[in-house]
Amino acid sequence: MKGSGATCERTRKERFIAHIMLGAWYKLGLFLLCYQIISLEGHPEGHYVAAVYEHRSILTPNPKVLTDRESALRLMNQNLDLYEEQVMAAAKEGVQIIVFPEDGIHGFNFTRDSLYPFLDFLPSLQSEEWNPCLEPYKFNDTEVLQRLSCMAIMGQMYLVANLGTKQPCNSSDAHCPADGRYQFNTNVVFSDNGTFVTSYRKQNLYFEYAFDTPPEVDYSTFDTPFAEKFGIFICFDILFFEPAVRLVKDYGVKHIVFTAAWMNQLPLLASIEIQQAFAVAFNVNVLAVNNHHPSLGMTGSGIHSPRRSFWYHNMESPEGKLIIAQISDPPADADLLWNDTSSTTESYREFFSKEPSCEENDIDAPCNKGWSHETVPSFHSTMMYDNFTLVPAWEEQGSLQVCSNSLCCYVDYQRHVLSDDFYALGVFDDLHTVHGTYYVQACALVKCGGPQFETCGHEITNATDTFDFHLWGNFSTSYVFPILLTSGMTLEIPGQVGWEGSHYFMRKNQLSEGLLTAALYGRWYERD
Ligand SMILES: *[C@@H]1O[C@H](CO)[C@@H](O)[C@H](O)[C@H]1NC(C)=O
Ligand SMILES: *[C@@H]1O[C@H](CO)[C@@H](O)[C@H](O)[C@H]1NC(C)=O
Ligand SMILES: *[C@@H]1O[C@H](CO)[C@@H](O)[C@H](O)[C@H]1NC(C)=O
Ligand SMILES: *[C@@H]1O[C@H](CO)[C@@H](O)[C@H](O)[C@H]1NC(C)=O
Ligand SMILES: *[C@@H]1O[C@H](CO)[C@@H](O)[C@H](O)[C@H]1NC(C)=O
Ligand SMILES: *[C@@H]1O[C@H](CO)[C@@H](O)[C@H](O)[C@H]1NC(C)=O
Ligand SMILES: *[C@@H]1O[C@H](CO)[C@@H](O)[C@H](O)[C@H]1NC(C)=O
Ligand SMILES: *[C@@H]1O[C@H](CO)[C@@H](O)[C@H](O)[C@H]1NC(C)=O
């Protein structure tokens, strides 16, 4: 293992140097080019200013009670008033695109019928252009769309928001619900002149009985003058292949707009964890926004690039939060990403030089000396409703292995601060069946809730022990999300991630905060 690891390091370093040299010439050219553009436009080429607003939606007190359109609009306008304030604040900062969260305008907990008055009509616009602010008469029941369109004009920015929409249907459509209409959980996009650009109807509903799944998957993308292609999806969608992964793989999307009303679930699925992991895994930017209701576990938004995250997570404040950041198109070559000071090959050599050395090409047969698993008995504990198999990470430094079904997870670790905190390496390779059914392959180094085995998987939010680690597993899926969460719900960017032979790995040295979770969260979509 160590031998082949070092070989990889060398080739990576060589490639890396080649990239730096190429990059230097390229950047010189770009710099001269940019200089002009900066002075003209105020933004360097390929950079743009994005905003997400973690909105605390004003909720109707009785979402299950039937109301009329007028009352529904009165409530929704209160939320839209707050959106407008944020758009104006963002405009002052030169924001070019702003994103508002799922359920931000109408709220949640409706029945199918009680939701109806809250729905805007969603026209199917093929080649037709529509500016709802300037052409309000074109379609009835589009008051919310009109206000959003007007806000885009006022702020002169692209605007993405989530609302409930309705589309009438009849028996000529075999999927048409019995009440003669579809009700969709919908994102809409307006351009900076208020034009309706595109819509996306949520594919993977999360027990939202008031809404219908669209009869066909929407692959919604849009272009802007300031960046490469954007793709859109909503909340629970992030855990599924359609449309999230396909947008990245087949539609060439480089920026994701992700709206959510996400209830955090530690240790692996807090919203900021999965948002950043998606950006790192797919080398895309993710403009992610959550609804803000800490009492429901909803907080956590961010503007994530593959190598940097501007995030917000706040369980105390009752208020919303506007996050603004300048980002650029993700680099075409993901190798360039792993250039932070904590992931130089030198520091890894030093780290690994403490380990027993093995023969090269033994990645599939790790040398026995390195593994203490034979002497460490595994135990079981429930993590996010899943029965993980774990081994304790008690030592100051060590090498651990734990397997379940066809997945084996490995970690080499070294602690810098050694407290009494109890950590364990866990594996899960099975169908997750609570709050949704989906197949998970996960390797997770977690801080446990206390000294007892059964506390591993508890929701912990602080830690003091910093680690250097190399975590890897022989995943059967190619879709693995690297998660790295540190004390106080802070994010750090992995030092390196990727494939080494048949193993997916993450390395990190010099964490600046205590470790909460280092995980490789794999989704084996075919097994769902
Ligand atoms: C939604 O309804 C469920 C029960 O139907 C309740 O437990 C939950 O608190 C409600 N949430 C809100 C935000 O009203
Ligand atoms: C809007 O509704 C009114 C009243 O029901 C109707 O007269 C009008 O034709 C509708 N307009 C459109 C564009 O559907
Ligand atoms: C059913 O809906 C289709 C498409 O919207 C429409 O063309 C057709 O006229 C409708 N049929 C009836 C019987 O209403
Ligand atoms: C408004 O923006 C859209 C999308 O960028 C563009 O296609 C359209 O030409 C613009 N319309 C006007 C009137 O500028
Ligand atoms: C990589 O590091 C070098 C030296 O610190 C720096 O000049 C370069 O901009 C970095 N590249 C990236 C892509 O961050
Ligand atoms: C977890 O799995 C192990 C081994 O299959 C089993 O012995 C244990 O009872 C399971 N635990 C729970 C809580 O289901
Ligand atoms: C992962 O490694 C273990 C142990 O070597 C092996 O039994 C298992 O078959 C491997 N899984 C895959 C998918 O290759
Ligand atoms: C960590 O969290 C525990 C439990 O919430 C708390 O008792 C402890 O004071 C916290 N420690 C720090 C350093 O914040």
From TrEMBL:
One of its GO terms (biological process) is biotin metabolic process. Residues 61-343 form the CN hydrolase domain. It comes from the Eukaryota. The chain crosses the membrane at residues 16-38. Its EC number is 3.5.1.12. One of its GO terms (molecular function) is biotinidase activity. InterPro entries: Biotinidase-like_euk, Biotinidase/VNN, C-N_Hydrolase, C-N_Hydrolase_sf, Vanin_C. The active site is at E102, K202, C235. Keywords: Glycoprotein, Hydrolase, Membrane, Signal, Transmembrane, Transmembrane helix. Signal peptide: none annotated. Belongs to the carbon-nitrogen hydrolase superfamily. BTD/VNN family. This is Biotinidase. It comes from Sarcophilus harrisii (Tasmanian devil).
